[in-house]
Every structure is written in structure tokens, then in C-alpha cells.
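Example 3.2
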Amino acid sequence: MKYTNKIILILIIIIILIFVLNFYQRYLTLKKIKDAENLIMVEKPKPYEKIQNPVLIKGKAKGYFFFEATFPIKIIDENGNVLLTDYIETKDNWMTENFVSFEKYININFGKTKRGFIVFERANPSGLKENQFELYIPVYFP
């Protein structure tokens, strides 16, 4: 009986650790998204939202996030496979240090995984490392 109790206790501890680590990972992800709000604010989709076609990508970013009124995005699955690469274009004046709105509908071939990320990349025509920035928004696929 003592051996069984030890196994049950170990399983309970493992389950609690998994729960705590998952919660902490979500906390760190949401903190990174919040910290990026001085550069880009994504309104749609929300973190951990279940998305389906057509996917609305909507938000606002500082003008210098764009180059020639566009910036790149990627949709990747949980294994890092790129499902889509595209560009977001603004219709507003992007040559400003203020926030500029963006909105686009996209269709994705989701593949077989159930989770992934929408990756917002700062336009970086110079290729300089100090100008690189990516924001990962975790999402669920249908």
C-alpha cells in the first residue's frame, strides 16, 4: 500500500508541475505581447484564440514598423513549419512615428497540427540586427 501511495503522490506532483509550467509559459508569452505594445498592438486574433478561414489580422503598429507601407507576417505551426508567408499593408500614412492601423483577411492551409503562431515581423530592409523584431501570437487551429 505504501508503494502505491508513493506512485500516486509522484503522479500528483507531476500533474501539478505540468500545470504550473503551462501557466508560467502563458504568463511569459502574454507579458512579451504586452511589452511589445509600444511598437505593435494586435487586436485580432487574440492570443490563444481559435482561428479559422478567413483569418482577420488587425491592429496597429508604429509607422517605423512598416517599410513602403508593408511588413511581413508568417503563420507557423507548433513544429516550426511555415504554413504561410505574406505581407500586411496599411492604407494610412506610414511615414510617422505614431501608430498606424492595419487589417487583412488571409486564408491558411492549417495542416495537421492544432496549434501555431502568427509571427509579426518588423520590416527591416537594412538587414541590420538591431532593427529586427518579431512578435509571436499563439493561436489554435480548427
